[in-house]
Write a structure and sequence with these properties.
mainly alpha, 77% helix
Length: 296
């Protein structure tokens, strides 16, 4: 019996809307089963459902972030299937986030004392609320009736900004879960942190490959060595945040203006993303053409 992946991935049952229902219906069933088994008459019970819904949502936003990059880096039938169904994977994320939004409403409205005493933090509220502003706008403009009201540039700006922000929030949560602030991380914290890191690191690698192909130039050995060292440093930082986070946070918030901004600006001062920033800088240097190539 022959095994042809291309034919399997073209099966209508695992593409477009059928793929969406194949994922979202079992997700909703699992959500309802867990809901029935949870004490929804208490704040902690509702809070546990918020965490449960988040764990359903997170993998889908990471898959959306990585879709185009995987296809650029590894052009094959599977990456083509992944990219082709990115919209429907994103809609699965929206379904899971809708459940989370429902539980957030329940806890803030019916258990507001518990919410404001044990759950609510202004910084988290700002970060989460912005995500919920992006999400419905992205869903509506994923269809022609909504997309027709935006220009191509506006649509790209909305969806790229939204995807980055919706990725940034859960990624930062799981990064912080692996720092001294959380002395008891669980396995899912490691899985989701590295999944989120990998998703964005693939975007950086894809950007580097795409720009190198477009420029049709090779950087000097000096650029490659220095860029490669920065990429290695970024990878090292990504695995050792537990050891440098406290010192880095103290340094970045040592001034009054920075400490005050930490209360108002989402993710400030961006500690979870520093390793990726170093990798991005290293990639820019690695692909930088030498002066002779740039003059051609």
């Amino acid at each position: 019996m022959s095994f042809d992946l291309k034919i399997i991935l073209k099966n209508k049952n695992i593409n477009t809307w059928r793929l969406f229902f194949l994922i979202s219906i079992p997700m909703c069933i699992a959500m309802i089963i867990n809901l029935v088994a949870t004490d929804m008459k208490s704040g902690p019970g509702v809070s546990s459902m918020i965490q449960y819904s988040v764990r359903w949502a997170v993998p889908f936003i990471f898959l959306v972030v990585a879709a185009s990059s995987v296809h650029i880096l590894f052009q094959n039938s599977f990456s083509a299937w992944w990219l082709r169904n990115r919209k429907y994977i994103g809609l699965c994320f929206a379904v899971a986030m809708s459940w989370q939004g429902l539980f957030i409403f329940i806890i803030s409205y019916f258990f507001h004392d518990y919410y404001y005493a044990d759950v609510y933090f202004l910084r988290d509220e700002l970060e989460g609320s912005i995500g919920y502003l992006f999400l419905p706008a992205m869903v509506v403009t994923s269809f022609n009736f909504g997309r027709k009201h935006l220009s191509s540039k506006q649509w790209k700006l909305l969806h790229k900004s939204g995807i980055y922000f919706l990725w940034a929030y859960p990624f930062s949560v799981y990064w912080w879960n692996l720092t001294p602030y959380n002395p008891d991380p669980v396995a899912i914290d490691y899985v989701f942190y590295w999944a989120g890191f990998t998703a964005f690191a693939l975007r950086i690698a894809a950007w580097g490959k795409k720009n190198q192909i477009q420029e049709k130039t090779n950087g000097s050995i000096l650029y490659k060595v220095f860029g490669g060292l920065l990429i290695a440093l970024g990878l090292f930082m990504s695995a050792t945040g537990l050891y440098w986070q406290e010192g880095m946070t103290a340094f970045l918030t040592s001034t009054n203006w920075s400490a005050n901004l930490e209360l108002w600006i989402p993710f400030w001062p961006f500690e979870p993303y520093l390793s990726l920033l170093v990798i991005a800088l290293g990639t820019m240097i690695y692909i930088k053409p030498n002066d002779r190539s740039s003059m051609k």
